């Protein structure tokens, strides 16, 4: 690095380097503190080793492996997102019911709008869920004609 210093006047340092994009020698004049800051960025902590010539760090093969590595990273991200969607769908009760019965549990069969679940009652526990007062507004729909006989719907997970 000392060979790259062109001038130092006690306040500023002028130095040069080889630009890898333009393949030209570039020059810069910065304050001494700025020069030290830029220099320290390239110094590794004690005990660290710099890897320069292997796999992804090897400049000679970087062009050959850059695109396959990018495709592999993209495929890994896509797989991670799809696995995340599967996990999320397995966590909710709506997802479980939809997977089991192939239809959304709160979707009205007549009009196609989403219904509001306002109460869950079981014979053994009584009311286990009740819609709170601060819930979103919902509209009342006329009750369908009562079918002949009794109908019961139960779910098991």
Summarize the structure.
With 157 residues, this protein is α+β, with helices and mostly antiparallel strands. The protein is built from three helices and five strands; from the N terminus they run βββαααββ. β2 (12-18) and β3 form a beta hairpin.
Describe the structure.
The mean pLDDT is 77. It is built from 3 helices and 5 strands, in the order βββαααββ. Strands 1-2-3 form a 3-stranded antiparallel beta sheet. The protein has helices at residues 32-40, 59-91, 93-101; strands spanning 5-8, 12-18, 25-31, 119-122, 126-130. The radius of gyration is 34 Å and the shape is elongated. A hairpin with a 3-residue loop joins strand 1 and strand 2 (12-18).
Q: Report the mean per-residue pLDDT as an integer.
A: 77
Instruction: Work out the radius of gyration.
Output: 34 Å
From the N-terminal CA to the C-terminal CA, the straight-line distance is 68 Å
Instruction: List unreliable stretches of 5+ residues.
Output: none
Strand content: 15-25%
Q: Give the number of DSSP strands.
A: 5
Shape type: elongated
Tell me the major beta sheet: 3 strands, antiparallel
Specify the helix fraction band.
Answer: 25-40%
- Figure out the total of helices: 3
**What class, by secondary structure content?**
alpha+beta
Outline the secondary-structure elements.
Elements: E1 5-8, E2 12-18, E3 25-31, H1 32-40, H2 59-91, H3 93-101, E4 119-122, E5 126-130
Antiparallel strand pairs: 1-2, 2-3, 4-5
Main attributes of the structure:
single chain; 157 residues; alpha+beta; two-stranded antiparallel sheet; 3 helices; 5 strands; elongated
């Amino acid at each position: 690095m000392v060979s790259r210093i062109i001038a130092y006047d006690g306040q500023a340092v002028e130095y040069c380097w080889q630009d890898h994009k333009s393949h030209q020698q570039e020059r810069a004049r910065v304050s001494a503190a700025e020069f030290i800051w830029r220099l320290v960025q390239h110094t590794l902590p004690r005990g660290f080793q710099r890897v320069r010539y292997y796999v992804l760090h090897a400049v000679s093969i970087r062009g050959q492996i850059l695109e396959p590595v990018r495709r592999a990273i993209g495929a890994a991200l896509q797989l991670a997102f799809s696995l995340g969607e599967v996990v999320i769908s397995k966590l909710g009760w709506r997802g479980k019911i939809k997977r089991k019965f192939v239809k959304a549990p709160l979707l009205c069969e007549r009009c196609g709008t989403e219904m509001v679940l306002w109460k869950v009652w079981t014979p053994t526990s009584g009311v286990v869920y009740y819609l709170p007062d601060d819930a979103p507004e919902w509209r009342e729909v006329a009750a369908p004609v009562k079918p002949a006989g009794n109908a019961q719907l139960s779910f098991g997970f």
